Amino acid sequence: MLSWLGRRSAAEKSGEQGEDLAKSLEKAKKPEAAIAVQERPSADGPLLSVRNVERSFDVGSQKIRVLKGINLNLYPSQLVMLRGRSGSGKTTLMNLMGGLDTPTKGEIFFKDRPFHKWDDDKRTVVRRKDIGFIFQAFALMPLLSAYENVELSLRMANIPRSQWKERITSCLDLVGLSKRMHHRPFELSGGEQQRVAIAKAIAHKPSLILADEPTAELDSQMTAQIMQVFKEVVAAENISLCMTTHDPTIMEVADHVYEMVDGVFVAN
Ligand SMILES: Nc1ncnc2c1ncn2[C@@H]1O[C@H](COP(=O)(O)OP(=O)(O)OP(=O)(O)O)[C@@H](O)[C@H]1O
Hints:
Layout: H1 4-11, H2 18-29, E1 48-59, E2 62-74, E3 79-84, H3 90-97, E4 105-110, E5 113-114, H4 120-130, E6 131-134, H5 146-156, H6 164-174, H7 190-202, E7 208-212, H8 220-237, E8 240-245, E9 256-261, E10 264-266
Parallel strand pairs: 3-8, 3-9, 6-7, 7-8
Antiparallel strand pairs: 1-2, 1-4, 4-5, 9-10
Helix pairs in contact: 5-6, 5-7, 6-7, 7-8
Bound molecules: adenosine-5'-triphosphate (ATP).
């Protein structure tokens, strides 16, 4: 598995079981070339629109086609999941959605801004201000408290210092960590650390949160808590959230689930 964090840093030089498995394997045998893009669920236009996107990588003398024509619309205040087997292309797509990478073909519009045409510097400005990232491995600074970790995000986004205390307190309160603000990551459970990571990702009030397997390191109880926090954050902060997962037990929380097989979406 390629780590999103690893590839993110590079790009940023400048963030199953029994029956279900049998069903998904059956579907995997017959991928459809492309499925209809999600119907418009709200009066607003999409926050993010991915149109006919392809991504290939040159490895030695070979061209590897990872994404083969992806269409996706993400609307304000939606919680969307990308599901697929390891290597199907989920992280590659998330990197494109977050402006960490650009497509080989196709278009990506974030708030009508053409990410596919913009250089990394321009995308970075938008990313810092309007997109939050959450990783499987929490990605917290180990020597900083929960409070200071969230503060770091506000500092990076150039939010005026006068607003920090109120915003940090309200974000940690939203994720249920008011009583653990001054704990450092090693003094927190895995679920609590991931809640700090969520507070950190939403602190600068982004419109979009991208989360790559945010519950992969957590047990089922912590996973359920994190999914509840995600639902609350999407509602309270008017944020759209797109996350990848292998876990079939959490799909019902999503407004929409995209199933990816070998670089294309298939009907689920
Ligand atoms: N920079 C790259 N260079 C070459 N191949 C790459 C690159 N990035 C991704 N790939 C290839 O693209 C394919 C899809 O990788 P990706 O990480 O997007 O899958 P994934 O669905 O997120 O998998 P996982 O669930 O294991 O994280 C893999 O075969 C991977 O080796």
